[in-house]
Amino acid sequence: MIAMFRAVLYSQWKWSRLIVVLGTVAAFAIPLVSLQGAARADRGALQAPELLRAVQSWGTLYPLLATALGLLMAIAAWAPDHRGRHIHALTLPLERWRYVLLRFGAGLLLLAAPIGAVLVGSSLAVLTATLPPGLQAYPIALAVRFAFAVCVAYAVFFAVSAGTARTAGIILGAIAALILVQVVAGIANIDLDLLRGAQAVLLLGPGPLAVFAGRWMLVDV
Amino acid sequence: MTDAIHLERLHYRAGKHFEIANLDLHVPSGSIYGFLGPNGSGKTTTIRLILGLLRPLSGRVTVLGLPMPEQHAQVLGRVGYVPEQPHLDATLTVRELIDFQAAFYPRWDRARAEELAGRFELDGDHLFGRLSKGQKAKLMILLALAQCGDLLVLDEPTDGLDPVVRRDILSALVAYVSERGATIFISSHLVHELERVCDWIAVMDDGRLVTEAPMEKLKHGTKRLVVMDAPAEIVNPPFRVLTRESANGGGAGENWVVGDWEPGMTSYFDGVGASVRDVIDLDLEDGFVELLRSFRKVGTRR
Q: Which of residues 247-286 of B touch A (CB under 8 A)?
């Protein structure tokens, strides 16, 4: 099984190395850039709100990066199999769930690079910055949250991407139906807010996508 | 002799217009079994059912003594498969594809893979997507042979290839069988190609089995007869009448194409007041065409 995993990992690395490298560079750079200027010697307590605003606005990039990485890695994991109509994968001598697990595991392992880059980048940014009094740095918490977000995004898109075009059609159809019902309800003056409801279910705790919502702060009070 | 592949009353439907109905097939172990049929006759679908890529609606598939698709992981470890279209990833090199495949097969023979790569003149650094059609076919054969399976399932492996590549591939297959005693199940619509290597033949048309017989029986038992004064109805002939039609030029002569023919059977015609003026050998292709014509007219297995 180790040899199989190595083979799958290598092929997946070859298909997604550009995504991994660019994602890793971005994940390393965002924390450093978000704290740029925080090391200025003349920064006093009055500059803390300004710093927090900067950190918060840069912080919106973490969930976006996590989503993009999850999406692209999931697509890369299945694209060659889709192109070959899964014939090669289905004729390999192992149970199909094992093959899916190998592909999923290989993708997760490759995503460890950008996750590690967030941790290293955040730690380095904090070490080289002089924070205003009263502010704390949370590099490990940020990296752990980024790791969760990447895993959730990868898992969701991996599941969707593993399916057939029919599966994708059903998901898109469900979303389209939701929007259509909302539009019709609006025209008919019916008090129905499905989109807000869906958003609340998905994004507010303990929703499955709650990890993406809220503020992503490397530095906070 | 046990069967390497055994299909029993297999039923599968794909859409509204195509179905495989009540298919029985017995591929003896150690044989080179040719699976003939025109394009769209159901050969590839049958192969996918055999390999567990598709699930039948009913019926039973047994491969190397194990039920499919239930035991597909165990079976596929002993089966080399060459699909009709190469489905490998175009962005991997020949070497990377060989290494990938080697990781999944416990009986992978690295030395054989090297030897075949040399014999087929495959450059390990070339991307699969940049290989010629012939090189791709050779690589697929290499991957199937190096895993040292007990059964090779080849779906039109030489379709569209030049004669030199075809010969290279067929000689590699024959050498493999003689060395390992493996079974080869090879589908094709190229009759002459199968005639050279196979010892069993099955013919399929429109999702149904037309015939299944040893090559010698099919080849030497199918004849064209020129029959004089043939009666309109014949009762219980010892051979199978595939087609009968008036000979060119009219008169009392008829052309018959018969199966299961043996030399002494001309005496049957004496008993019904007819005579055989000529017995003409048919090659496999002629026999195949006559079988299909007869099958399409009557619609039953021969």
A: none
